[in-house]
Amino acid sequence: GVNLAFYYNSQQKLSEEYVEQFIPKNKFIVTYTGTFGEANALEYIIEAAKKLKHTSKIHFLLVGEGYLKEELKDNASELTNITFAPKV
């Protein structure tokens, strides 16, 4: 089981600046949060974003840090439907 009290009592609100800068409005957002490393296979999310780049209603949000972040950002540099945000 999961102790939900941990999640309810440990939540912190994101700053308005963070929300404005990184979280798009009026979109269906596919989100990944965690480490940008090889074990996380984030290249598949980039490929999905490429296949859906003409769909303006879907946006991919990747939140976190890791040694592959810059490589992934370079691979997705031409995409407007993906955002890389710093860890929270």
Provide structural commentary.
By secondary structure, the protein is an alpha/beta fold. It has one domain (4-85): Glycogen Phosphorylase B (Rossmann fold). It is 33% helix and 23% strand. It has helices at 4-9, 16-22, 43-51, 69-75; strands at residues 28-35, 58-65, 82-85. The chain has a three-stranded parallel β-sheet, covered by helices on one side. It is globular and about 40 Å long. The two termini are 26 Å apart.
Short description:
The protein has four helices and three strands, in the order ααβαβαβ. With 88 residues, the chain is an alpha/beta fold.
Fold topology:
Layout: H1 4-9, H2 16-22, E1 28-35, H3 43-51, E2 58-65, H4 69-75, E3 82-85
Largest sheet: 3 strands, parallel
Question: How many structural domains does the protein architecture include?
Answer: 1
Helical amount: 25-40%
Q: Write down the secondary-structure element order.
A: HHEHEHE
**Shape field:** globular
Report the C-alpha radius of gyration, rounded.
14 Å
Number of strands: 3
Structural class: alpha/beta
Low-confidence stretches: none
CATH superfamily: Glycogen Phosphorylase B
Query: Architecture in CATH?
Result: 3-Layer(aba) Sandwich
The CATH topology comes to: Rossmann fold
Distance between the termini: 26 Å
Q: What average pLDDT do the residues reach?
A: 94
Strand content: 15-25%
* CATH class membership: Alpha Beta
The strands making up the biggest β-sheet line up spatially as 1-2-3
